[in-house]
Amino acid sequence: MSVRTLVVDDSLTMQALIRRTLSVDPAIEVVGTAASAEEARAKIKELDPDVVTLDIEMPGMNGLDFLERLMRLRPTPVVMLSTLTSDGAEASIAALELGAFECFDKLALRRENEAIRLPALVRAASGTRRRLAPLPPKSEPLDGDYRPRDNALIAVGASTGGVEALIELLTGFPANCPPTVIVQHMPASFTASFAARLDRLCRPSVEEARAGAPLQVGKVYLAPGGDRHLEVAGSGGKRHCRLLQGPKVSGHQPSVDTLFHSVARCAGSDAVGALLTGMGADGAEGMLAMRTTGSVTIGQDEATSVVYGMPAVAHRIGAVVQQLPLRRIAPRLLQECRA
């Protein structure tokens, strides 16, 4: 059965390019195109597509406003098309927060070796179940009596759907949370904006990880996108961030597996880990190493994952101590680290 796709872009040239890119995959059928939000709304009602590709920049109602209304009134998997530059990062992060499945670089459509990712994203998006009911209440941060035990460390990995998931997770953290290190798969131009967004929303301080930055209570460190991996180095109360160049691991750079393996080596039973929503298997083997060295490991459950990929593989290989719905993961991580 084909993935029925609607292409929404105000440029006829771009519509044709997207259609041509998707047509190489026999499992995808472009059932229509639209050049504005108004036209897209009518086409969605008429055609009931499985997936929508949506341009962020459109005349009249922009893509973000349309996405917000679509997710509220008729939840549909959406792949946003944007220029993934620093200028477009804020808008792209906002789209992911609103529930877009993924953002794809428009410029990559003209690079054959990169354009092939778009059909794969559309196919993957078609298999997701967008929320048809209101979100559950956000996790409430623990009371002011919370104090992390000495040397406690939290490590988190996420991919597709991770922007929403990490916002939900970290808004449940108190200001004096244990040092927390995170790998979220996203382009290099996104991570600074995402860290700044999290810092505004959350009680702890959130920043892009810097080489040599000491891991401190009340701080969250997000791996920078690009060509480096984030590791934890040192021991006890003198752990710090290490950024290493090198090939992709488990298909990614930075890699959750690389982070988790370093946590297993440096923290062992001091650490707790969480593997959240995401395509693929990155993080599963590293989480198994964490569990083997005494870490408590948590996987996001299928019902609350946008893509039940990474946590599913971790569960299948025995890397996960317990699977939990997203809203229960922050309380569990914090409880495991409590003094």
SSE layout and pairings?
Layout: E1 3-8, H1 12-23, E2 28-34, H2 37-47, E3 51-55, H3 63-73, E4 78-82, H4 86-98, E5 102-105, H5 112-115, H6 117-126, E6 153-158, H7 162-170, E7 180-184, H8 188-201, E8 205-208, E9 219-222, E10 228-233, E11 240-245, H9 256-266, E12 271-275, H10 284-292, E13 296-300, H11 310-316, E14 322-324, H12 326-336
Parallel strand pairs: 1-2, 1-3, 3-4, 4-5, 6-7, 6-12, 7-9, 8-9, 12-13, 13-14
Antiparallel strand pairs: 10-11
Helix pairs in contact: 3-4, 4-8, 7-12, 9-10, 10-11
Domain CheB-type methylesterase: 141-339
Protein name: Protein-glutamate methylesterase/protein-glutamine glutaminase
Main location: cytoplasm
